[in-house]
Design brief:
This protein is of the alpha/beta class. It has one domain: Spore Coat Polysaccharide Biosynthesis Protein SpsA, Chain A (Alpha-Beta Complex). Helices cover 43% and strands 18% of the residues. It is built from eight helices and nine strands. The strands form two sheets. A seven-stranded mixed beta sheet has the order 3-2-1-4-7-5-8, sandwiched between helices. Strands 6-9 form a two-stranded parallel sheet. The longest helix has 18 residues. It is globular. The two termini are 32 Å apart.
Length: 239
């Protein structure tokens, strides 16, 4: 499949991070995808000026685009809007990554290498050998690892990190799993995408990464997001 890789960066109140994350990501992608790349910032009406900074970046760099959404209604819908825009504009590969440097932009090259090498979906995985997390307390580790384990057992999957949001899809995967019908918003959104890919017979590969806590801004993680996953994951298996 030809087509450029597109990186989707969802933002809400990321004024302290967006310029730096776009610069770092662009530098990596320019080397990993010399044929061209795109970075799409999907901003959910950030009141801190993130959207305005994103527009400035788009004016300065032809490979940056901005999709403005009127309201904040979950990372899942933001990604869905970004996926649709990227596919409609010819993306061959679609990547997702947090905008706060909790995912290392340098690892974008490793995810692309995995799909160029034959994977249909490459996951940045914290829970395979070589992966891990840093700067987390015990409670957050328990919630994250417990959520992945719970989803893996309920869904009968071998994938170790089901709740992570650092991924690279071949275009064909998103088209085949009918991503527009995904209704989950938080952890469950990431679980559902991977589950659909596995059920569709696609080759899912986990690439070890180290996840680091954000240095600037405020985490969007909440108990509501975790609870959604607990409730929705069994419905994926038994619907």
């Amino acid at each position: 499949m030809s087509g450029e890789p597109w990186l989707i960066l969802p933002t809400y109140n990321e004024a302290e991070n967006v310029q730096a994350i776009v610069a770092a990501s662009g530098e990596v992608l320019s080397r990993a995808a010399p044929g061209g790349h795109r970075v799409l910032i999907v901003d959910d009406g950030s009141p801190d000026g993130t959207g305005e900074i994103a527009d400035q970046l788009a004016a300065e760099h032809p490979w940056v685009e901005v999709l403005h959404r009127a309201e904040k209604n979950g990372i899942g819908p933001a990604y869905l809007a970004g996926f649709r825009h990227a596919l409609d504009h010819g993306a061959g590969y679609v990547m997702e990554m947090d905008s706060d440097f909790s995912h290392d932009p340098a690892d974008l090259a490793r995810l692309l290498e995995a799909v160029y090498g034959g994977a249909d979906l490459a996951l940045g995985s914290r829970y395979v050998p070589g992966g891990g997390v840093s700067d987390w307390g015990m409670l957050r580790r328990f919630i994250s690892e417990g959520g992945s384990t719970y989803a893996r057992v309920v869904l009968g999957l071998r994938v170790r990190d089901l709740t992570g949001g650092f991924k690279c899809f071949r275009r064909e995967v998103l088209e085949s799993i009918h991503f527009d019908s995904v209704r989950s918003r938080g952890y469950a959104f990431q679980v559902e995408l991977t589950y659909r890919a596995v059920q569709g017979g696609f080759n899912v590969v986990e690439v070890p990464i180290v996840f680091r806590d954000r240095q600037y801004g405020t985490s969007k993680m909440s108990w509501r997001i975790a609870a959604e996953a607990m409730w929705l994951v069994p419905r994926l298996r038994f619907r």
